[in-house]
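Case study 2.
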Amino acid sequence: MEHLGYASKVWDGVKVRADMGAIPNRWSAIFDYLMGIAKSKKAWHVIAKLVVCASAYFIWNERNRRLFSPQRRNQEQLVNVILSTVRLKLQLMKLVRSYG
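Prediction:
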């Protein structure tokens, strides 16, 4: 159960820094939020979808990392990895649109 507390702390860190603090830490609430913006192409909604996807992926990745290797990242390190990945993806999207 250690990973659930860890995941919750990581999600808290990500959502506050991504200005998504109003979304509760329940999958049903996150899912409902995503369903409401699923077809939207607004920049803020695209960012929110990227944040949730990156958070889920990297929390899962860290869980596996902890199970199969001695390497560990603390919550703040993982929050920074998630947000850096989202920033990079947004920059690449902007670059593709400028050449597309």
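The helical segments are 2-17, 27-37, 43-68, 75-99.
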